[in-house]
Amino acid sequence: MPRVSAAHEQEVRDRIVGAAVRVFSDKGFHSSTIADVCRESGLSVGAIYTYFSSKEELFRQSCDLIAARGLDELAERLLSATTTAERMTIAIGLYVETIDEYAGAPGQISLVQAWAEADREPGVREMLSARRERLVGAGQFLLRQGIASAELPAWLDVDAVTRGFLGLLDGLLLQRIEAGSAYRPGDLQRRAGAVLELILAAAGAPRPSLPAAPGRAGAVERAGAISTA
User: Fold this and answer.
1) Sign (positive/negative) of CA torsion 188, 190, 193, 198?
2) How many folded domains does the chain comprise?
3) Neighbours of 60 (CB within 10 A)
4) Contact 56/123 with Cβ under 8 angstroms?
5) Which strand (E) or helix (H) includes residue 199?
6) CA–CA dist 27, 16 (Å, integer)
7) Does 174 map to a domain?
8) Residue 100 carries which DSSP code?
9) Sign of the C-alpha dihedral, residues 73, 80, 92, 99?
10) Which SS3 state, helix, strand or coil, does residue 212 take?
11) What is the domain extent for residue 101?
12) pLDDT for 136-190, tens place per residue?
């Protein structure tokens, strides 16, 4: 029997995961079945289970694919940017664009479903944590570029700002769902852009004196040590 090439195996896996993304986006996790993925992909049940052990694994892979595609696209778009303002604006714009990318589902519905499943599915929680850390890494890189070019202040807590801004973006995703038919992409871009303006305006400002919060002092010291290293 001829050996199946690694390229062919990857092509089949991508075909299955792509079909799963569309199915989960359309029907939701609990209402979807492996049979639905078979119909969408044009493959047999046996073919599906050759590559994936369960619907849960397919769900994790589907969400992971969405995150990976976003980072690849971001890297390409950033090639044309020359300032921190441009890079961050591009990142915000891409996030808003991809909210409705998958099967026309509102708010990257597979991601929202993953959040709902995280308490019951350790594998989903692990996937979400990995997604978060990949995005944090990309965001920290952009902010550190801004500090190096003096577009951002050296005292900026890079880790906290990155995680806080990602929380803002994910919150905008939920606002999109709440808005329903009244949703306008420009609204989300304007809200995130307003916060970005505040961050960029801090470039020439001294560090503000804020009440100490648990763990904040140590985080600021670590951020300062990194930025001056």
Assistant:
1) negative
2) 1
3) 23
4) yes
5) helix 185-201
6) 16
7) yes
8) T
9) negative
10) coil
11) 63-228
12) 999 999 999 999 999 999 999 999 999 999 999 999 888 888 888 898 989 999 9
For residue 215, name the pLDDT band (cuts at 50, 70, 90).
Answer: low
Q: Residue 95's closest CA among 167, 202, 157, 6?
A: 167
Give the separation between CA 161 and CA 210, rounded to whole angstroms: 15
d(CA 63, CA 97): 17
Which pair of tokens denotes residue 102? 């998958």
Q: Is 221 a member of any domain?
A: yes
Q: Which segments of the chain are extended strands (E)?
A: none
Domain CATH code at residue 171: 1.10.357.10
Query: Which residues of 37-124 form beta strands (DSSP E)?
Result: none
Given pLDDT bands bounded at 50, 70 and 90, which one contains residue 26? confident
- For residue 113, is it within any domain? yes
Taking CA atoms, 72 is separated from 14, 66, 67, in Å, by 16, 10, 9
